[in-house]
Design brief:
5-stranded antiparallel sheet, globular, mainly beta, 39% strand, 11 strands
Length: 145
Amino acid sequence: MAYIPSMQAVKATDGSSRVLRFMSVKAGVTIIPGTIVVKEITGFITNAADAAADDTVVGIAQSGVVTAAAAGADKVMVDVNPNMIYRMKYEGAAVPILGAKYDLGANGYTLDSADTVGGFITAYDNIDSTNKYVDVVLTGRVFAN
């Protein structure tokens, strides 16, 4: 998988800073900085996919690892601040609507502007329909300690 910068921190809705936590990675998973990560029932994190289940989204990976050898052998730093606003690309012909919730696209790193079923990415501000960027906040998050 080539490195594709997907999400960049913009600011927090409450003026706070990023809240960074080291989290253990599931075996056999490559995490790329700037991607949404979820916590599995095993307690390890992995990349988010289309229609991430409620209360599994942890945050945005701030560091990465290439194919973790064994579960828990590698850790990545994750921003777990639920108030952070991130800028991300969107795909699809539709322009996102502020306040609407969307899913990830099939590629796993862009917002799918045509998919609002099971959405966990809320369009928050600054929609750029020319360059296809939107500022978002994540919903359906699980508390990460």
